[in-house]
Specification:
The chain folds into 3 domains: 220 residues, Serine Threonine Protein Phosphatase 5, Tetratricopeptide repeat, CATH 1.25.40; 68 residues, Alpha-Beta Plaits (2-Layer Sandwich), CATH 3.30.70; 69 residues. By secondary structure, the protein is α/β, with parallel strands linked by helices. Helix 1 packs antiparallel against helix 3. The protein is globular. It has 17 helices and 9 strands. The protein starts with 6 loop residues before the first strand and ends with a helix.
C-alpha cells in the first residue's frame, strides 16, 4: 500500500481485525493492570470481547466503502460493548464513524478528523469523566493526529504513527493524573488496551501483519516510581463494597440518552449512557440494579442484561495479584498513620500497610484482611500503638 493512497473500507476493516488479534495476545496482561474504577481484573477481556463484536459486524457491512464499514463497526461495538472500557471503546468507534461518514475511501486527514470526533464522543458518554484513563489517551492521540495531518507529512501511515506514539506517551503518563495508579505502580488498563489496538492497526498499515504472529504487545510501564502501597496494600485500607456492575441495552422509539443519564446519575457510579433514539447502552456500578432495570423497562425493551458482583471480582483480583507477587518468607503488616510513615515503613520492608494510630485504631477485621492479602503464610504484625495490640492478638474465629 502506498502511504499517500486513500484507503478503502476493506482496509479499514482489516486494520482493526489485525488490532483485535494483537489485543488478544495481551488481554490477560491488561487485565492484571486494572485498579480503576474497580480492581476487577477484566478490562483487557472486556475490550477484546467488544472488539470481536465490532469486527463481526464489520464483516456484515452493506458495502466496502469506508463509511459503511465504519458505521458497521460502530454498531457492533455498541451492541457488544462489555464493561466500562468496552462502552468507552464503542463511543470511540461511534466518533470515528461520524468522521468518516459519506466517504468511499479515507486519507490521513480523514482519520485525524475521525479520531477527534472519537475523543469528543468518548467524553460525552460519561457523566463524570476522569483524566488519567482511556479518555485522556484518546484525547492526546487525536490531538497528535490533528497536528500531523496539518503538516507536510500527512499521509495515513504518518498520521497513524503519530497517533500511536502519542498514545504510548499518554499511557505512561496516566499515573501522574490518577493517584490510584501512582500508588499501585501501574498505568491505566483501558488506556493500555487502546494503545495496543492502535498499534495493531499501525502494524497492519506498515505491512508487518505477518511479524505480529511471532511478537506480543509491550505493556507500558509507569513514568512514576512505585508509590508507598501495592494493590494488596490498597485493598487492606478499608472495608470496601463495590456492588454490581450492571449493563444492558435499551431499545425503543424516541429514547433520550441525555435524559436517561440524568435520571440514573443518582442511582450509582461509573455511569455511562451512550446511543441514540432507538438503541441505548447503559453501564453503571450500583448496590441494587433491580430499580434501574425496572425503570428502563418503562421506557422500552431491555436486552443483554448483565449483573456482575464486583465484590467477588475484587476478591478474585486480589488472589490474582497475590499469585503474581514475588514469594517472601515472612510478610510484615504495619499499622501506621499518614502517607509519609507509610512510605518509610514500605521502604524498610513492610509488605502491607493498615492506616491507623492514636485515636484511629483499626479493627480486628482490618488487620485480618491485611494478613489474608499478604503474600506469605508467615506474617508479623507491627501495631505501633499499645491500643492496637488487643485487636492484633485476636484470633480468627
Amino acid at each position: 500500500m502506498k502511504q499517500a493512497d486513500p484507503v478503502s473500507g476493506q482496509d479499514l476493516r482489516e486494520m482493526f481485525a489485525a488490532a483485535t488479534s494483537w489485543l488478544e495476545k495481551s488481554a490477560s496482561d491488561v487485565d492484571a493492570l486494572n485498579v480503576f474504577p474497580v480492581p476487577d481484573g477484566d478490562t483487557g477481556t472486556n475490550m477484546l470481547l467488544t472488539m470481536r463484536s465490532t469486527m463481526d459486524e464489520a464483516y456484515l457491512a452493506s458495502d466496502q466503502s469506508a463509511s459503511a464499514v465504519a458505521q458497521a463497526m460502530a454498531k457492533g461495538a455498541l451492541m457488544g460493548a462489555r464493561g466500562n472500557s468496552g462502552v468507552v471503546l464503542s463511543q470511540i468507534y461511534c466518533g470515528l464513524a461520524q468522521g468518516l461518514a459519506g466517504k468511499e475511501t479515507f486519507t490521513g486527514k480523514d482519520l485525524a478528523d475521525g479520531l477527534l470526533q472519537a475523543s469528543i464522543m468518548a467524553y460525552k458518554g460519561l457523566s463524570n469523566p476522569v483524566e488519567g484513563t482511556i479518555l485522556t489517551v484518546i484525547k492526546d492521540a487525536s490531538s497528535a493526529a490533528e497536528v500531523q495531518a496539518a503538516g507536510e507529512r500527512n499521509d495515513l501511515v504518518s498520521v497513524m504513527a503519530a497517533t500511536v506514539d502519542a498514545a504510548k506517551g499518554s499511557v505512561a503518563n496516566t499515573p501522574k493524573l490518577l493517584p490510584v495508579l501512582r500508588e499501585s505502580g501501574v498505568v491505566d488498563a483501558g488506556g493500555q488496551g487502546l494503545y495496543i489496538i492502535l498499534e495493531g492497526a499501525l502494524l497492519f498499515l506498515t505491512g508487518k501483519a505477518e511479524q505480529m504472529q511471532f511478537r506480543k504487545p509491550w505493556i507500558i510501564t509507569s513514568n512514576e516510581a512505585l508509590g508507598a502501597r501495592t494493590p494488596q496494600m490498597v485493598a487492606a485500607d478499608e472495608e470496601l463494597y463495590f456492588g454490581y456492575c450492571t449493563e444492558f441495552v435499551l431499545k425503543g422509539e424516541g429514547l433520550n440518552p441525555d435524559k436517561l443519564r440524568t435520571e440514573l446519575e443518582k442511582k450509582g457510579e461509573s455511569l455511562i449512557v451512550v446511543g441514540n433514539e432507538s438503541t441505548i447502552r447503559v453501564h453503571i456500578h450500583t448496590p441494587d440494579p433491580c430499580p434501574i432495570v425496572h425503570y428502563a423497562t418503562s421506557l422500552g425493551t431491555v436486552h443483554q442484561v448483565s449483573m456482575r458482583n464486583m465484590d467477588e471480582q475484587h476478591r478474585d483480583y486480589l488472589e490474582m495479584q497475590k499469585e503474581r507477587a514475588p514469594e517472601i518468607e515472612v510478610a510484615i503488616v504495619a499499622v501506621v498513620a499518614g502517607d509519609g510513615l507509610s512510605g518509610v515503613f514500605t521502604s524498610l520492608g513492610a509488605t502491607s500497610i493498615v492506616p491507623g494510630g492514636q485515636t484511629m485504631n483499626p479493627s480486628t477485621k482490618d488487620l485480618l484482611q491485611a494478613v489474608e492479602s499478604a503474600v506469605s503464610d508467615k506474617v508479623i504484625i507491627l501495631p505501633n500503638n499499645k491500643n492496637i495490640v488487643p485487636a492484633a492478638n485476636r484470633q480468627n474465629p
